[in-house]
């Protein structure tokens, strides 16, 4: 079941999937509230796979882009799949995850899927890869 924070929805699918459905123009306050909600639910996870539905995002302002790496520092990403984003939003999101990956030095591939179904298939494959390599922990 999804939890709404402002116009945005957050869904937790244990043991390792977080689904974020962002809508409209992101603000630092709403982004921070969403991330803090997730911290309360899954901060003890050894790894996290993220499905980011950006189909409703109209802009990711610079003030949000600046805080993403810091506010998500606790999140042990091991795979990110983006779906529904316009070319511009997808490009910005991919660049944000590239910065996060460079700073953290983790194995965290970012993928784009045309649908949520395709995104979930990619996450399932990524979960199998992590299980095979034992790479699920930070």
Brief summary of the model shown:
The chain has 138 residues and is an alpha/beta fold. The protein is 44% helix and 30% strand.
Q: How does this model look, in words?
A:
By secondary structure, the chain is an alpha/beta fold. It has a single domain (3-133), classed as Transcription Regulator spoIIAA. 44% of the residues lie in helices and 30% in strands. It contains four helices and six strands, in the order βββαβαβαβα. It has helices at 28-42, 62-71, 87-104, 116-133, and strands at residues 3-5, 8-13, 17-25, 48-59, 77-83, 110-113. A six-stranded mixed β-sheet has the order 1-2-3-4-5-6, with helices on both faces. A hairpin with a 2-residue loop joins strand 1 and strand 2. Helix 1 (28-42) packs parallel to helix 2. It is globular.
Protein topology:
Layout: E1 3-5, E2 8-13, E3 17-25, H1 28-42, E4 48-59, H2 62-71, E5 77-83, H3 87-104, E6 110-113, H4 116-133
Parallel strand pairs: 3-4, 4-5, 5-6
Antiparallel strand pairs: 1-2, 2-3
């Amino acid at each position: 079941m999804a939890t709404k924070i402002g116009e945005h929805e957050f869904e937790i699918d244990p043991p390792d999937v977080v689904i974020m459905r962002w809508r409209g123009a992101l603000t630092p306050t709403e982004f921070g509230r969403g991330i803090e909600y997730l911290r309360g639910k899954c901060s003890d996870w050894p790894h996290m796979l993220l499905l980011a539905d950006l189909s409703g995002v109209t802009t990711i302002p610079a003030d949000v882009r600046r805080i993403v790496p810091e506010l998500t520092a606790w999140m042990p990403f091991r795979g990110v799949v983006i779906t529904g984003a316009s070319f511009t939003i997808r490009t910005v999101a991919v660049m944000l995850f590239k910065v996060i990956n460079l700073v953290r030095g983790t194995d965290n591939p970012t993928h784009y899927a045309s649908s949520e179904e395709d995104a979930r298939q990619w996450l399932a494959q990524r979960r199998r890869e992590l299980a095979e390599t034992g790479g699920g922990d930070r």
